Each structure stands twice: as structure tokens, then as C-alpha cells.
Amino acid sequence: MTRDEEWRKIILSINDNTFFDLMRNYLGKIETPFNKQDLMNRLVNFLSRADIRETLLALIDDEEARLLSAVGLTGGATESQLRSGFPGWTYLELLTRIGNLEERFLIYRRKGIYNLTPLFEEELKRDYISPSLLIETGDALPGFDPPLWFSDPLMIALYSFFCSDSNLIKIDGTVKKRGADKLEQLFPHVFGGEEGRERFILTLKILKNLNLLNITEGEISLNHFEWKRLSERTERDRYSLYYGAALADSPASSGSMTDFFIRFYKNFPPGRVILNDSLAPFFLIFCSIGPAFHPERVKKLLCDLNILVSSGEGLKLNGVLRLGEKGVPRHNDHPLIVQPNFEITVKQTASLKELLETAGALDLTQYDLYSRFSLSRKSFLRAFSCGLTPVQLIDDLEKLSGKEIPQNISISLDDWAREHEKVVLYKGTVMKVAEDKRIFIEKTDVLTPFIQEVLADGVYLMKNGFERQWMDALENLSITPRVIDSTHVKKEENGSQIPVKHLNWKSSSRNLWKREDERTACKEEDRTGELLKILDRSGIKGDEKKELDARIRRKLIFHPSQINKGIVRPEITEARGMNYQGKVRLVESALQNSSDRLELTYFSGGDSRTILVQPLELKKEENDKILEGRILPDEETITLRVSKISKIRKIRSSLF
Amino acid sequence: MVGNSAKPLIVQGDSSILLEVHNGSFEEARADISPFCELEKSPEHIHTYRISPLSLWNGASAGITADEVLGILERHSRYPIPDNVSFRIRDLISRFGKLKLTETEDPAILQLHISDRLIDAEIAASRKLAKYLSRHGDSFLLQLYDRGTIKLELIKLGYPVEDLASLKEGDPLDFSLREKRLDGSDFRIRDYQRDAAEAFVGNNRPGTGFGTIVLPCGSGKTIVGMTVMDLLKTNTLILTTNVAAVHQWIDELTDKSTLSRDEIGEYTGDRKEIKGVTIGTYQILVWRKDKESEYKHFQLFRERNWGLIIYDEVHLLPAPVFRVTAELQTVRRVGLTATLVREDGAEENVFSLVGPKRFEIPWKQLEAQGWIAEAICHEIRIDLPEDEKIDYAIADQRRKFRIASENPIKMEITSELIANHREDSILVIGQYIDQLQKISKALNAPIITGKTPNQERERIFEDFRQKKIHVLVVSKVANFAINLPDASVAIQISGTFGSRQEEAQRLGRILRPKEKNSFFYSVVSRYTVEEEYAANRQQFLTEQGYKYHIEMWGHDEFINDQR
């Protein structure tokens, strides 16, 4: 189905009252018998006339062009997205504007998403739609940008820190005094003071959203597998994931906020600032925001993370952040320095990918521009217990430092490992196989890849992380083991993956930062004046005249041929007091028209309260009717007895 | 963050500065930052400096401004200077000169001028200072003998005092350094020794004449002290750690200066002479009958009109001497040390009461220049005997350390090491007298402990110097200030837990320059707490750039000759 056909189908499917209101408005009084398809054709013909098109489009003012730009540049936007893109308008104001563009057939709605009407799309895109209408930019001022405090070097330090200390948080989730002191001591410039504590809470959120750690009754445990997976991603992906997780409310929304962040980063005008009020529409147009998006909160987080920094009158993207296709440009130097006093200095250029495993074997001394770690027996044995061998660590340290490591360090590592290995505690799954079954294990290769060590005759230590595979292999051998301890099942559950969408970096490449020529000023006022004079001369009176007057001002009537007697359907918009049936009818009529909202006044706790509601359902209950709806703009649900409502006013912002 | 890797400095957020040794601009940057930074450690690849209040105020007292400090840092820094560091530098330097101490017409009274109203109010409100200061118009008056105490308290509050009150001129002394030693060989002061002395004396301008000089062991700190004496030519009181050190000073002075033995007073347990140059020990100064009695030997400070006090091994200055030093702020005073590391954290008191660090030079720099011997350090790890392993396992921490320290296998290892250094003069140094006596007996080598009479001690030292004996067993009395010019091997068999200072001082015994390398062996019981303590002990030296070669020795292994 073409978009034109889709649009026609949607118009034809709207309820009859609205459909005929619209037809009468554009085509005049409709004589029976009528055919909806025929009326639709006549409407298209009318709107396709050159003079009509020219007038209709010329009546678009700046504010409308902004809204159309938002709809056009997003390629379709929901009401809530538009609401977050225009935080300066009240909800009702926004609804009125959307409804007016809809009744003027400039936009249409499909499954809750507003799009440009195919009939005018080409001209709108050519002459009216521009990002510069929504997003005001300026030149960024030169100067140093602050460092990004959440970075790979911080992650390296955090990994080392959490490996050695997991007891920082109280059961209620706040930071213990001891924890705060330790953070202040080890991360004085990131987590020190009041601001630092907020940063730490944000840091925990990021790590939790990335499934890198769990906090159970105040005890922090790391998901080493997830850290490893994260470290293996490209630098560009990692940083996007960090910042996406910072913006997300939960692990579930982490992936979508990562996509958001990537779009935000890629589309931010280079070398420019975006003025404060323009940030919300920028998010809307370029970042594909979701339904529960709060631009102010996101802006604050981006500022807290130093991703957005003040520059002149606006905010610019921190120049330190470089997430190009090739990643952050790297120095040729090595990321760490190993000194004979067992001190390891990690440079600012270090990446998580290179240093994760090594960091697990070190104790953080202080996080700074160049962070200081120490290698001790305790820190090494911690990593050794997790499988890091002295040879591996020595290799890594030599590779990362570009130098042979001091002899006293290498010999100490070997010696510590040798001594430590003399008593071994195995944590994992042990499979004990009776003699008659051993033949299946030993004479087939099915299980061999999953056996880490044969501890004794018929006693096998199984490899961690392959639980499902070895269980399947046993099934294939027709062996169903008796599971005495089911911890392997739990482990498998814990090893869930980071919920990250595939990142398509090429999908958003708009860069429309040239302000188009100023459009010719519309002679809207003259035109409205002329139409109102014609209305005066038409002899139409009373409520009908008032409605036509309003339609002229809403630009719904823009051509003299539309001013006709009898095109307006008289309608009651308010019911109060004892008029119970009137109130019910108003609710029923609002339910038929998706753009209608109800202003309800009722008594609550002795006080009169007025709210704006989008009606959802009217249910019968005994002798009363129950209205279910959503309070706007917060969208909290509400249930009210119609008998308890003292006044209902239908807010109709458009013919829809 | 993208930095300019051609630049060698990294200014950290905690006001420390990392300086990359292998960078082409290393020397230039080091020279530029030295006036306002303190060197903290200088291991192989990257040196750490610190911008401390004292280092900045030292710089400020020499006329350097905050803009100049920041300009130097920016010129050499790889990354932008953190804002908090820039702010701190400006703030701290701006405090210098706001408090000035001047003389009054009454020589016993000094006047404290404060140019900032807020600081004035803060000081006026300080309870600790109230008993020392009396308001006098816009300023405060204080007693001359409270000068040190007031300066110390004000530094604790974060305000340095620009001390413009002149120091007391002591009685003159006819003193010169000689060009020839007693044996007729040439005597020449090395450049760094002269630089250190001149940095202290500072042309006698206000704000100089008190301070600390930090030089490696074996680099000739005594010569620096004598050079200061030569520059000031005034009555001098020299305080040092023990009688052997007193005698060493006497020998040095008679060998290299115009003083004769008769012109030098010895103030020790044995003799109580007070002359134009008097050398005493800290022990005698702090001796008293009982805890309630006064320190009667403190009178020594007032017996003569001293123009200079030299605190040798100032890192060992006992607490009571700190107190009397606080009262001696009008006298020029210099502290000499190799290791300003106090396990009690009292380094600040040394800086405040004796004076700030005026000169320091890294150990490895002097080694590279040939002024101290190149020392090769080994840690030899040996197993505990099988029959001691159970005792060790069930002992408490303190006992564990003792068992590990007194591991009898150390005796065999020491013998093997000695056998491998037949031509060298060897010191065997340890902590426990029983252990040392056993070793002494086994090796048939003399032993010196705290109980060895001075005369016998001198005789043994002389035999050692004369190479009549080539192995000497010493307790911790030999940790400091013993001049053993020909010792080239030290074997450390036990020590005071993790004392960094002791390790460095013991290494210092073999650092006097010689034609061959020196060897320092530390014998440690493997898989015991002694390993951890050894690692801690080695920290100071590894931070100075020394490397320890660790070897595992079994019973039947032989020494690899490293020479």
C-alpha cells in the first residue's frame, strides 16, 4: 500500500461525525445520497487545486513550521515525543496545535504516530521543514574541555577496587561511612565530597544497568564474564554503552538509551553549541527518543557526565569525547609503567580491553590522571585464584609496559603462585562417575572438552561456563545425573548477556545545519481579515457564525468557497450539576473522537479539583457509570463515578 | 584525553607531579620544578614530586610567583593543569607574606604583623595561640623563645610566617677548611656539597639560616656541615646519634679543617667538654634521672653563644629535643639526613622547627656521577628448617617474625656469602644479639653491640679499617653514622620489622665511593612474614631507584658471583 493509499484509508475509517464535519468544512454542504469514497475523491481534488494548495501552505506560520519540522524530521513522532520536544508549550496548547494541523490535512495519525500528509509532503519538506527552525545553534567558544570522568581508566580502577573491596554499601543502598572514606581516599577527584557521592551512585547505576555488578544486601559482586565481554568490544561501543547505561532507568532500557546516545553524538553539530531551549527538539529529531523520555533529566545527566559542557550561551559536545569509526586516537606509548617498588602507574590512554585482566591482579592506590596501583601477594593471589597465571601476568605487564619487568617482581609472582598452589580449594561442579559408567566418559570424546581436571578415579572437575553443553552431552550418552547441588543452574542464569541492540552507526547521518533562506512572509492577517468580512456578509449568525469564525482563525477555512451555511454541526460541549445524562453523553462523544479531551471538575477531600483527562472507557456499575481515563499530561490513570463529577467540559481542539 | 606526549610532566589532581625519566625534556623540567616541588620518589622510569604548602612557601620565599609556577607547569605538562591544583597553588602562594615576624626594640620580644583581616581574626580566635600572643594595635607581640612554637602552630593553621627577624650572631670561630688532608692527600669540596651549604646559608638574608639538607648516605653530609661552618665561622654545636658518630665528626674536623683536637669539645657520657665547636649525642641530651626530673643536659644549648647548631641524622631527633629546638629559633640550625622518613610521621616537625628542606639530590644521580658507590642489592630467600615450620605455623605474628628472623640456615648462607667475598670488607648486620653472637662465634668475627665499650668499639673499627679483620658483626648500633670507608659488602640477617629508614641506612654503610661495586644482601626466610616486612623495608630504596635481585636458595645451592 502506498502512503497515499494509507492516508486515504485512514481518513475513510474515521468516525462518521468527524468525517462529515471535515467534508462539510472543505466541500460545503453535502447532499444525500452520498458516497464516502466519492467524497474522499472530491476532497483530494479540492486540496489538489493549485490555488487551494498555495493558500493552505502559505498559511503555515513559524510555530506550525516548527511542529511540522519535528514531525517531518523525525519521520513520524508520537504525541509524547512531541511533548518532550516542545517543553515550552502546555500540554493543551500542544494538543490544540497538533489537532489543528491534522484537521488542515497537513499531518495525519497512524497508530498513534503523526506523519506528514502525503498530499503536501513534497512541498513541506522543500519549503517549510528545517532543523534550524527548532534548534538554535551558535559558535562554540575555544578553550579546554574538562576531562570525562567516566572513562576506561575509571573502569579499570573500579574493577580493581571492587575485586578487593565489596563491602561499601548499606542494605538500604546508601554508601557506608567507611565506603565514603575509602572512595574519598582512592578516588578523591571523582568520588570525593557531596558531588562525588552522587557520581558514585550514578556509577553504580551504570554498572548495574550494564549487568556488571549485583548488589545483594549491600554486598557487591562482580559479573566477571560481563566485564570481559564489555572489554572485548570496541572502544567506541564501550563508551556508548557507558553513557547509554548512565541515561537508562534500568538494564532493560540500557540498549535503547545506547542507541539514543550514539544518535546524539553523531548528530551533534561539530564546533557548534546548541542553545538551552533547543536541546529538547534536538533530542526529538535526531535521537529517536522513546515514550518515557525526559529531556531535562537527560540534559542534566549529560552535563553531569561532562559530555555536554557550557560554552557561551549554549552547550557543546565535550571535545575530549572522540568516538570515531576508528576509536580514540592512540599514542604510540605503552599504557602502563612497572617500577621495581611493585608500583604500577596506569596512563590516561589505557583501555579496558588491554588492562582488565591485569587490573584484577592489582590494588588501587589512587585514581588520578595517571592512576597508581600496587602489586602485592594478596592482589596477585586474588587474580591467580580466578585463573591468571604468573606467566600470563608477566607477559601482560611486559607487553603493556614495553619493558622487561623487574626481576624481583617476576620471581615473587612465581614464588607466590607456587606456594599458593600447594593447597587448592575447588569451587565448581564435580562429577562423580561409578566404575561401570566411566567407560562412557573415558572412551568417548563427548565430555572431554568440558572436563577441567580429573581429581581422582571417576571424579571429574567440570569446566565453568559450559554447564548446558555438558548436561546435553550426558543426555546424548543416555546418562541422567543426579544433581546434588544445583548451583550450576543459577550460574547460568547469572551469565546473561548485556541487553544491547546491534549498533547501526550509519543509520543517522543527517546533518542539516544550514539555515534555509527565510521564507516569504505570509500575508496571513490580510487573508484572515478578508475571510472574516466575507463571513460577516454571508448572513450566517449565532453559534454557527462563531464556529466558522473560529475555523477561519484556525486556518481550517482558508478559501471563500468554504464559507457556507449549514456546514457546522451544532454540539453541546459542557454539562454540569444535575444534568447526569448530559455528562454521560459528553463522555460517550469524547470516547468516539480520539482527539477529544475532557475537563472534569469534582470534589476531593472537601476541595474542588479540576483535571484534564483523556477518556479511555465508560463502564456501567449499578445505577452509575464509571469513567476510566488518563490524567494529562502525567498519564496517571483515574477512575471516577460520573455522578460525582460536578462539571464536564469537552475540549475539542480540532475536528478530529 | 589527548595529551602532548613530547612533554614530560603529568600534573595530578592530588598536587603530585609525575616526571617521565626517559623523556627528552626530563632534565630541563626537573630543574624548572625543583624550586617549588619536593621530590618524593625517584625509581627507574617515573619520578614523583609533590607540590606541598611548604614547598610552595619555600619557592615563594625565594621570590617565585604563582604565575611563574603555573607557567612552568603549563610549559612542561602533557595535559591541562587540573583546576583544583591551579587554585591551590594560587591560594597557598597568596598566603605567603601575609604574616611577617619582625624584631622590636626589646630583643626578647617579636612582633607578628598580619596584612589580612580575616586571617587576623582567625588567629586572634585561636585558643592554642592565645597564650603566646598579645594584641598590640594591628599586630601581635610574642616572646622570642616562643618563635618556633608560634611558627609551627601557624603552619598547622595553613599560614606560613615570613620570618624577617634576624638570627642571632654567635661568637666568632677561627675556622677554615683545609686543601690537604692530614695524610697529605688533596681535599676538595664537591659541587653538590657546596651547593647544599650555600642553599642553607643563603647569603644570610632574612628567611635563610635554618633548614634541612637531604643527601644520600655516603655522599658526605659531614663535609656539607663543615662547609656551612666554614661559611659562617661561628661557635657550633653538633648533635649526633652516638659516641662513634661523635668521634667520626671529630676525626673529620681534625682531618679537613684548621681545628685541632683540643679545640673540639666532646659532650658524651664519658666526657663533658664544651668548646667553640662541641659535639654531643642525642642520648646525653635527653638523659634524666627519672621521668619527673628535668633534662639537665639541655643546659648545653645555653652554655655558649652558639651561632650554629648542626642536627646530624635529623630524622632521629628525639621528641624532647624538638621542644628545646622550638625555643632556639634565633640560632642558625641545619638538619642533615639521608632518609627523612619517620615511622612516627613527625617529618612536619622537622621542617617546622629545624627548617624546610633546602637541598636534596636523588641517590641515583650521585651514583651516576660516581660520588657514591654503585650498590647491587640482593634478597636471598631461604626455607625455614623443617623442624621449625610447625612452630612457625602456630606462633603469633610477633613470634613468627622472630622465628623467621633467627632462621638458623641464615648462618650457613652468611658463611657462603662471606666465602664468596674473600677480598671484601664485610659487615654482618642484625637485630637480635643472641643471633649475632652465634654468628660472630661461628665466623670467628668480632661483634659490636650497644654494650661494647667505646674504646673496644674504636679498636675494632680501627682493625676493620686497617683490614686486619674483614668481617665485622654489628647490631643496630651500626645503623647510623659509622664511618667504615672500606666496607663493601653488607649482609643483613635480621632487622626491625618493616623499617624503610633502617634498610636505607644499612645500605648507606657501603655507599662510600670505591673502585668496585658494593653488595647488599638481605637474607629472608621464604614463605614467612619476613618476606612482607622485607618488601616494606625495601620501599624507600626502590623508590630511590634501587633494584633488588631476588634469589631462592636451598641448602645445597652455591652463590653465583655477580661481580
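The radius of gyration of chain B is 25 Å.
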